[in-house]
Amino acid sequence: MITVQTRRQLVFYAIQVADLVIFSATLMFALYIDGKEWQVLIHPPTWALFGWLLSALVVWHFCLVGAHLYRSHRLAGGFPVVEILMGVSMGSVGVGVLALLFRPGWINLEVIVHLWWISGASIIVMRALFWYSLVYLRRQGRNVHDVLVVGSGQRAAHLIKKLCEPSTGYCVIGYIDDSGHSKSEGLNGIEYLGDVTMLPSILAERVIDEVFIVLPMRSHYDSTAQVIQHCEEQGIPLRIPFDLFVPGHCAQYVDVFEGMPILSLAPSDAPQWYEFIKRLIDMGVAAVLLVLLAPLFVTVGLLVKLDSPGPVFFVQRRVGMYKRLFPLIKFRTMHLNSEAALRQIEHLNEADGPVFKIRDDPRMTRFGRFLRRTSIDELPQLLNVLVGHMSLVGPRPLPLRDVEGFTVHWQRRRFSIRPGITCLWQIQGRSSISFKQWMELDLFYIEHRSLPLDLKILLQTVPAVLKRAGAY
Predict the structure, then answer these.
(1) Residue 88: which domain range?
(2) Mean pLDDT of 334-346
């Protein structure tokens, strides 16, 4: 007899094979659109072609695996379109890199682009049909798991409400608890089956596919351990929701280290795919701008050298993500030994807080004032973005001197993400706003960051730079 687990594994194998078929068919169709001859696939000219095809299949498969497309989404609560786009994007990039390594002449950028959107659309359509077929079957009472809930508090009530939604494919047959409930009572209309001591007999006499434990861990540790032992003895799968704390703005997820599950709390609830997509955008935009702005870099470099003696670039250690120091690159706007001269003019500081800002800094060169006013001095930081020290959008990186002057711990939360070239502070007044407002804007961005917000900040940076408000 084929068990539920075996049947599920066979379905996942079938989906993996279907994805590889989609990849192969999409590749041939992309070549056809690009005008390539079918003979190029029928009569491979070199071993490099065989190596590329085999490597491409392997890379494509593991990119989809890395996007978590081959696991049960019964508890995911939605159609995994983001995971599909992540996997297809990573796979397309991997295939493109392999094309550069093996150099098959019939693979170009146009083929890769066609491969990306056609395969992405095909996989989304296939998964949508599969997903909604499962939802339909579950609503008809098929592919439904009978579950038992251990616990009766607010967390248990919330969990039962979610599990009882028809699309999840769960049927809660009852709950048990040590809080003194009677059988006449209930939780969201679910039957009370007794206390934890009755669990062995309940598992032995009833059909139960899974058990969910939502007991308070601090006061019911021994009871939880007994439930785990009883479920293990009778081979019943067990799930323990890890929403054990109320961490405010932090996101919670579970990692696995050497077979040991670890509850992780991230500084914000931004999804993991957001960081991946943002990094791709950072690298792509930085690379393109560095190429387009190369003539401007040469011109500015010559003018910096003609204006005053010293190097073209000013490199300063700044505090980056997780307080790691990195070399920030700018066009030099000050005379030599400006860092050493800072102590002599600190009494002229016009900014509040630990930062140092004055409008008429005597250390500034003539051309340096123009670079500061136009923000052209910041353009070399595109190199920092390209290598991963910074992002296009994020809290501005501060010198070590300024960070050492922080007086409250919440301000250090800005180090939980990559610093950026532009941010909310840059588009809302720059040096004309207070240090406290600056830090609050940084925290607002950390807690609400998203691709639309990043795009909004980038677009508003252009008029902010042209207005030159607060730039000195």
Answers:
(1) 4-139
(2) 76
Contact 60, 91 (CB under 8 A): yes
Specify whether 282 is located in the same domain as 382. yes
Neighbours of 191 (CB within 10 A): 12
The residue ranking higher by pLDDT, 220 or 230, is 230
Which CATH number goes with the domain that contains 236? Answer: 3.40.50.720
- Residue of 414 and 74 predicted with greater confidence: 414
In a domain, 265, yes or no: no
Whether 419 contacts 345, CB under 8 Å? no
Q: What is the pLDDT of residues 9-45, one digit of tens each?
A: 777 788 899 999 999 888 888 877 766 554 555 555 5
- 171 and 157 within one domain: yes
Per-residue pLDDT, 106: 66
Question: Do 231 and 93 share a domain, yes or no?
Answer: no
Instruction: Tally the domains of the chain.
Output: 3
Instruction: Name which residue leads in pLDDT, 71 or 289.
Output: 289
Last residue of a domain, one of 241, 259, 284: 241
- My answer on whether 217 and 277 are in the same domain is no
* Residue whose token pair is 């280290």: 257
| CA–CA dist 110, 57 (Å, integer) | 19
Average pLDDT rounded to a whole number, residues 176-180: 74
pLDDT at 184: 45
For residues 363-400, b (16+ Cβ closer than 10 Å) or e, as one string?
bbbebbebbbeebbbbbbbbbbbbeebbbbbbbbbbbe
